[in-house]
Amino acid sequence: MINKDVRQELLDQYPILLFDLACNHEKNLTILHMNSYFYELLGIDKDSFPLDGILAFQTLLYPDDFQRFTAIIENAIQDGLSHFETEIRWICSDSSILWTRIRGNIESCRERFRIHCCGENISVQKEMEKEAFLSEERFRIALTTTSIVIFDYDPRTKIYQSLIEADILLGLPRNMENVPESIVKMGIIHPDSVEEFYRVFQKISDGALFSSAIIRANRIGMDIWIRLSLTNILDHDGKSIRIIGFESDITREMNAKLAFIRENQYRSALLSNALAAYEINFSKNRILKMEGDWLARFQGQVFEKYSDAVNLIAETVIHSDDRKQYLKTYGWQSVVDAVHHGSTEIKLEHRRLNAANEMIWALSELYLFTDQTQNEVLGFFFVMDIHQQKTRELALKRKAEHDSLTGLLNKEHTERLLQNFLSDQSSDEKHGLMVIDLDNFKSVNDTFGHQKGDMVLAELGRLLYETFRSTDIIGRVGGDEFVVFLKNVTSMTKTVDLARNLCSLVTSQFNTFDQNFSISSSVGISEFPEDGKTYEELFRKADIALYEAKRHGKNCVFRYDPSMAGCNFPPNGILSEK
Fold first, then answer.
1. DSSP state, residue 569
2. What's the mean pLDDT in 117-129?
3. What would the pLDDT profile of 257-308 be if each residue is shown by its tens digit?
4. What's CA 278's distance to the chain center, in Å?
5. What is the edge-to-edge ordering of all strands in the sheet holding 286-292?
6. What confidence score (pLDDT) does residue 146 get?
């Protein structure tokens, strides 16, 4: 028989955890013995650690596990069991956790029970389980937060199983049978992609190591593009043990590709009709390519900087009246600012010289996009000839806005221009409005006919157009009634002088024009903002002043005065000839 000391020495050398516990009738546990390996794992000094007492054992166990371990032993004793097995955690001297799997034997000794326990260190296993769990969680979270779906597919049973709760791309349930047919029947796959969808699954079912395709699908009424890939996982003998499928959302990539194709087609169509075309790197302020009349006009001169080229074009090709707006629209800094504000297209109609040095109407179109690979802003610039179209458009516009007889602005357009202009004026500005009426014009029509009357009106229109500034607004607002709006006048005295000079010009002009009749004019004047801030107010008061001029013998000028408001002005505002 091995004596007790030799036995203890042998047990201390075993790389297993050995300890004995005592359990009294109050179910209190105390440590009777621990082997050296156990002390070593816990990092405890064998000579200084007290074994006696309940507290000694309790301090070694993880709090939650102490209560659970005590309950396991109590239940085993109560049920008359002699063996038990469990996993518990111990607190090491450095506060780390030691996981152990414990097997115990319960022995009854007089008034108490003795429990012989042996255990193995399973900390590494638990750490691996924890890492596996965390990896699985990370994988699950990654799948739910990205546009990638991973699934298992069994070609024998045709069962599909997503590795997350549901297929977030196609809106499929987690488990499906009879795939791919059941998915097609759901109407999710676009008709153009059904054949390709079947092919992917058939190819992998036939034993291919890999099968892939780009599939067009429909999700909640919205077109999407999916890259579908199936991979065969083989064992050491080359037999298929599993098929893994991947779905990734490539809608953005495909839309960009399709847009690029459409853009190239559109660009080719534009180039066939363009006067000029340029490719520009706005991030580097460089022209990459030039086509069209540039080469002929500048004899192949190449500019490295876009800013130099656009300034030269503005100076030598663009109409002088459009030059400022052209540079404001297409200057290098203007385009850069427009890009920062989200612009992708910049268009401008303007006049420019063509290859034959004829001034024509053109449409410049700049299309901007970002090269994702270089993170640079690029642009395609096209210049189109729209001269015929623009000429017809301007002719129709002029016809709609001008009086056909005199060539001046018609009543509607005159009122619209003045209303818009006055709505944006401050009280510090000073403008004048003249209302002009021909005296005795009715007698001209009655005596000489309307043809002669039309000649008089046309001649007055020419006279008004040549007398006043190009910035003034001149319009015919009635049969023989005209208005002249003088912008930014320095004084109303000068406005009155201009009106008197006009009356003299009319009298002398028409005496020369035809000595068979005498024609004169009367003028009423109102002032902005003193007499009103709207066209309606200014016209009404200028018309009142005109009535005063008529009452005082005609062929004269009256400026509105508030005292005129009480005069015998016709209630309908219409002056009748006498």
1. -
2. 88
3. 777 677 666 666 555 667 888 889 999 999 888 777 665 666 656 677 899 9
4. 26
5. 286-292, 274-281, 376-385, 359-371, 345-353
6. 54
| CB environment 218-248: b (16+ within 10 A), e (fewer) | ebeeeebbbbbbbbbeeeeeeebeebebebb
Q: 431: pLDDT confidence band, cut at 50, 70 and 90?
A: very high
Smallest CA-to-CA distance from 418 within 496, 465, 468, 487 is with: 487
Strand 520-528 relative to strand 557-559, pairing: parallel
What's the average model confidence in pLDDT over 380-409? Answer: 89
Q: What is the CA radius of gyration of the chain?
A: 49
Average pLDDT over residues 510-539: 86
Q: What is the mean pLDDT of residues 418-444?
A: 91
Average pLDDT of span 371-381: 82
Peptide bond into 50 cis (omega under 30): no
Distance (Å, whole) CA 64 – CA 85: 17
Our measurement of the distance from residue 504's CA atom to the centroid of its chain's CA atoms, rounded to an integer in Å, reads 64
Q: pTM for this one? A: 0.46
Amino acid identity of 393?
Answer: E
The structure tokens listed for 453 are: 């009357």
Please give the helix or strand (H or E) that residue 44 lies within, else none. Answer: none
Give dist(CA 334, CA 501) in Å, integer: 47
Is pLDDT above 60 for 150?
A: yes
Q: Provide the strand spans (E) within 235-282.
A: 240-249, 274-281
Cis peptide before 173 (omega within 30 of 0): no
CA dist 347 and 354 (Å) reads 18
> How many separate helices (H) and strands (E) can be counted in the chain?
18, 21
Residue 207: pLDDT band with limits 50, 70, 90: confident
Question: Which structural domains are found in the chain, ordered by start?
Answer: 4-122 (3.30.450.20), 146-249 (3.30.450.20), 267-391 (3.30.450.20), 402-566 (3.30.70.270)
Record the tokens describing residue 523, joined without a space. Answer: 């003028």
What residues are annotated to the active site? 480
Contact (CB, 8 A) for 485 and 420 = no
**Nearest-angstrom CA–CA distance, 96 and 82:** 32
